[in-house]
């Protein structure tokens, strides 16, 4: 937990890969060091294309990411992959040795790969991922791929960081149902049906297209394409990258502004809740906190009412607790 | 959005099923009505056995829940199922008509089934689920089953509500890897390998057992059993219920107290962050908020620093923003 070196932000901005890795670790630990670092780097970002790629475990999403990285490297773009899928080989699958698929990118400095633990972050997963994106953006990476499983609110929050989001489905796993229900469908810009050589692939494509057809018509809005890939063999991967680019380009102007504003608002709300919580924890450390816990355990007060009292104590004002 | 009837809490406590359904809807909407209701019901809970059941989509977890409900009903226990798995048939799978598996419990007043949307809750999924459990507990349900997919921080948070947690694995889906990585393994009290007639079942059992063997030895602690089931045919379901009961019984006393305290602390932290965020949003509505969003979008300030300023404005004190 040593203090990060004073020139860490400058080294990140110069694109130093080891400085980037260290900066992400600083951000993951949270606290004043993390905030000071992010405050220095945030003004120097905003250029990277952030692509979210989501899909159920087993959908072949990680293989698709691997192949996309190959396409981007062939086009001289620098890439970062932030993998927050617990089943991804990028998240350091040391347990059963599934790092194998990482392929040929391990020694390429133009590809920065970072796995994020799915829990244990002081400020939550979406906050830690947002910080990693800020750092990689300031480091000048052209494309930042955020890879996650598409289940749960956290994952949906993470996807909100992306300018373009890709949802990977696979025939025969009921993923289409999953996607429709999990709300991921609403935020996906590009649909990929991977393992398209499987017999049910066309049925999945048809299911997604018929659901998309139910959306309200809006001539100016982006129409998400439904693409077929066989990521293992690289089939269809170019088309996925082209669709991502088209989506990004069409979003130039007003639409992008609206989307960007919504993203900033969501992130600001998250930051307010997190900082306020930290503040309360700090100021009511000791007796106040322990007393509240005991009262809730004895069911003499409910957690929300107790939280309202703690807030009032911490900030010296009535904080509007209900009940 | 009508005001809930004044006697709603009393009707919930009397076990009125329609009042329970209505109360959960009130809680889901959040706000003062929800908080007043929970404040009235929370003191009357603490008796129900809350069981968390988690597992990847396709693991047969919902079928296992269905069969467990059958076992409990045969023993005259009243049951509630809170399903927050987007792929569960309990979550109202109207999209592709997969409600079928709900089986014979639909018309049994001793089985209350409620699905929770995985997003859109004002206070987050774990808060909404906690409120639902408070309501069902106060309504006198003997057993409350919370069913969720075991991926993501939200799901882990939800599992913290449970006195006993069950992790359902299935051969041939790589779930064991998933479980090991997602951190769910650390909180599971009972492991179930479902679809145990599949050839790889014994390998999965062995993989889990060898990982469990790595835990630090603690003679007084509960040792999670690894059980095999074929939920579709009801095979092994009784043994799962017996293991849940043994775990609950062994936790009587000091261990349960420690666990309960940790659960309350986690819930209190969540409530503090959420209420503080609501308060800031309310007080800085309008100019302050819009200005902060614009400054962050222009990258003149980072989200955390802007959040610190908003907090300082809302609470009339310097709130320690970094940078």
Output the strand order for the largest sheet of chain A: 3-2-4-1-5-6-7
Oligomer: homodimer
Which ranges of chain A are low-confidence, i.e. pLDDT below 50, for 5 or more consecutive residues? 91-102, 318-323
Query: How does the overall form of chain A come out from the CA principal axes?
Result: globular
Largest interface, with Cβ-Cβ < 8 Å? A-B, 90 and 90 residues
What share of the residues of chain A lie within helices?
A: 40-55%
Mean pLDDT, all residues of chain A: 80
Task: Count every helix of chain A, treating DSSP H or I runs of 4 or more residues as helices.
Answer: 13
Biggest beta sheet attributes of chain A:
7 strands, parallel
CATH superfamily of the largest domain in chain A: P-loop containing nucleotide triphosphate hydrolases
Strand content of chain A: 5-15%
Task: Count the E strands of chain A.
Answer: 7
What's the number of structural domains of chain A?
2
Order of secondary-structure elements of chain A? HHHEHEEHEHEHHEHEHHHH
Structural class of chain A: alpha/beta
Using only CA atoms, what is the Rg of chain A? 22 Å
CATH architectural arrangement of the largest domain in chain A: 3-Layer(aba) Sandwich
CA distance, first residue to last residue of chain A = 43 Å
